[in-house]
Every structure is written in structure tokens, then in C-alpha cells.
Amino acid sequence: MSSDQNQRENFLLLIAFAMPIAFSAWMALLNNFTIEMAQFTGKEIGVLQSLREVPGFLAFTAVFILWYIHEQRFAVMALFTLAIGVFLTGFFPSTLGLYLTTVLMSIGFHYLETLNQSLTLQWLPKERAAEFMGRALSVKAVAAVAAFGGIWLSIDYFALPYRYVYGLFGGLTLILVLYMALRFPLFPAKTPQNKHLVLRKRYWLFYLLTFLSGARRQIFVVFAGFLMVEKFGYSAGQIALLLLINYFFNMFFARKIGAWIGRIGERKALTLEYLGLTLVFCGYALVENPWFAASLYIVDHLFFAMAIAIKTYFQKIADPKDMASSAGVSFTINHIAAVALPAMLGLVWLVSPELVFYVGAGLALVSLICSQWIPNLPQPGYETTRTRIRPLPGEAI
After folding, report:
1. In whole angstroms, what is the distance from residue 298 CA to residue 354 CA?
2. Helices (H), 287-322
3. How crowded is residue 393: how many other Cβ atoms within 10 Å of its Cβ?
4. String of DSSP letters for 181-215
5. Which residues, listed in sequence order, are joined to residue 382 by a DSSP beta bridge?
6. Most buried among 75, 186, 233, 276, using CB within 10 Å?
7. Is 379 helix (H, G, I), strand (E, B) or coil?
8. CA 223 to CA 227: how far, in whole Å?
9. Distance of CA 355 to the CA centre of its chain
10. Other CB atoms within 10 A of residue 21 CB
11. Distance between CA atoms of 242 and 234, rounded to whole angstroms?
């Protein structure tokens, strides 16, 4: 591997390490902080999560900003915005304050995720992409394990106020942002990227799977943790420990899962994921035992690593010039349902929490059906088993 390629991969891995330090604090403390300090109910948490997803819905705007800012520098700026949002969260324990800091944090988070996906698909060769994404998930897990362990000690052992915990982990991320800005040169693009919106008919299955993934994931992110706190009375420290266990699994197995996806192919990996998620969501709807609920939470999170398969499927069928634009478009599609769904299901939650999780099971089943349309060997011109499109050279489809 060349020195330049090694530097690029180190940059991506450092992003993978830095992001969870701030975001883990926001995620682990959110439910307890909103309930204890701001007296949130399902209605307010639904609105907050919908607001959090608005920047994700607008992720397609990243391609326009790339006219003025180098993509790598933009990623560092996005990480800075995420860290500042988390740093400030604990100082504004009110409904309006939480809404504003959440949006700030989310702007940084969603632009960073968009740019990170774009750079990874541009910089990594297809034969190594799945394994590298698994490796990046392992690095994220190492950072998250350290963060959740620190959160648990901060809350349950040292009894620090929420504002100090948010400030500590947001501040640590800001230090890493400074290091990245000073340490890495600006790498030239391997393939010049389209700096306009790109929507192609031949990517339709990728768009559909991305949409369903965004809708389904929101139910876990918003309501699974809320179930733990509201129904079973889990403390902030206990939620942090659950997340800690989840990331231990990723730390040891995510790279192997990525390599496994590279061997068996995207269709088989996604089939297993969606079958498992259907059972997990039904379990959430029926669970009455706090230990069984915790087990479901861990298994649910373990399936997240298999979502690598959607990205590697796209890399195999896409024009290399479309990576930056399509990363923004895919995040927007991912968040179409995410903007409205949490608020809508927050109202459903007030009537029937079980129904929220049955909706998730239904989405997983639809995803399972759609995943069967992925070819065993996807490539440009053979994007799905339903159509075989062979464009002329240079033709936009």
C-alpha cells in the first residue's frame, strides 16, 4: 500500500474514532437528560428526534458546498460542528434549548456521515471496501467503548452533573478536530466528482433500500432506548452499559462481518439482517422482562454492522464520479421518513407503544422482499435481478 493511500485511510479511521466520542455522550445521556431535566414525554422526544433528522434530510446540499470547500476540509468542519453541539447541550436543559443544540449537533453529524461515506467509497478499492468499513466500525466501537465507560463512571461513580459530562466529551472531540486539521494534508481527488445532484434510474433499488433503512432505524434509535427508560426504569449509567456491550461486539466482530459480507455477497447478508430485525421488533412489542428487553437491544445493535452491504452494493453498481453527490442524495432519502416518522410515532406511542414496534417489523419485512432483487454479482448494467440495463458509454441513466 502506498504512503498516500495509508494516509488517506488513517484520516478516515481517525474520523471513525473521533465522532463517537461526542455522539456517544449525546446518545447515552439523551433519554435520562430529557426526562429528568426537561420533563419530556413521548410527544416531546418525538419532536426532538424529528428535528434532529431535518439536517439529514438536507444532506444533499453538501454537494453544493463542495463547489467552495474541499471535501476533506468540509469533513473536519462538520466534526467541529458536531462537537460544539454536544459541548453545549448540558447547559440548556429546557425544551427550546434541547431543540436548538440538537439541531446544531445534527448538522455536524449528518454532513460528517455524508462526507465520510463519500470519501470512503472514493478512496477504497472495491475489493477492500467491505473489510475496511468493518475495520472502521471496529475503530468506532473502541472509541464508543471508552466513551460509554467514561460516561458510566462520570454518572454512577463520580455523580457529575450532566453539563460537565456533555462538556467533557464534546471538548475531547474538539481537541481531535484540531489535531486532524494540523496533521493531515489535503489529498487530491482520485476521480473528479460531479458537483450537482445526480439521480439515476438504475440506482432505484439502492434508493429504496436506503429509504426503508432510514425509516426502520429511527424506530430503534428513538423508541428502543425510550422503552428501556420509561417502561423498565433503566438509569443513564445502565443505558451506557448496554451501549458499552453493543460496542464491545462491534469492536471484536465488525471487521470480520465486513470481510464476511465481501465473501458471501450483499443479498445474503441483507437477507439475514432483515429476518433478524423482523423478529427483534416483534420482541420489543411483546417484551415484559427487563433482561429480555436488554438482550433484544444488544441483538438489534449487532445487526447494524450488516448495513455495510447497502453501501458496498452501491459502490459496485455506481459511476465513480457519482460518489460525493450520491452520498448526499442517499442521506436525504434515508431521512425522508426519519423527519416525520418520530413525531408521528411519538403520538402513536401515547396510545400503544407495541404498535410502534409492529410498524418496525413491517418495514423489516418489506426490506427483506426488496433485498432479494440484488444480483449475486451486481455491476453497472446489472443493478437488479428485475432489469438488465446496459447504457452506452457516457450515457446518463
Report:
1. 19
2. 290-302, 308-317
3. 4
4. HHH-PPPPPSSPPP-S----GGGHHHHHHHHHHHH
5. 379
6. 75
7. strand
8. 6
9. 24
10. 26
11. 10
Residue 355: which residues within 8 A CB-CB, separation 6 or more? Answer: 285, 348
Residue 388 above 60 pLDDT? Answer: no
Q: pLDDT of 302-355, one tens digit each?
A: 787 788 889 889 889 888 888 777 777 887 887 777 667 777 888 888 888 899
Cβ–Cβ < 8 Å for 283, 317: no
pLDDT at 278: 94
Q: Are the CB atoms for 45 and 344 separated by under 8 Å?
A: no
Q: 123-137, 163-177, 209-223, 243-257: lowest mean pLDDT where?
A: 243-257
C-alpha cell at 340: 416525520
- Any residues with CB less than 8 A from the CB of 243 and at least 6 apart, and which? 24, 27, 28, 144, 148, 301
- Output the CA torsion sign for 86, 88, 89, 91: positive
Secondary structure (3-state) at 376: coil
| Alpha carbon of residue 116 to chain centroid | 11
- Residue 363's pLDDT is 92
Q: Is the pLDDT of residue 8 over 80?
A: yes
Q: How far apart are CA 19 and CA 143, in angstroms?
A: 8
Cell of 67: 463547489
pLDDT of 393: 46
Q: Please, what sign has the CA dihedral across residues 215, 239, 116, 320?
A: negative
Pick from 18, 28, 26, 13: nearest CA to 173:
18
Instruction: Give 387's pLDDT tier (boundaries 50, 70, 90).
Output: low
Question: Coil, helix or strand for 287?
Answer: coil
Question: pTM of the predicted model, to two decimals?
Answer: 0.77
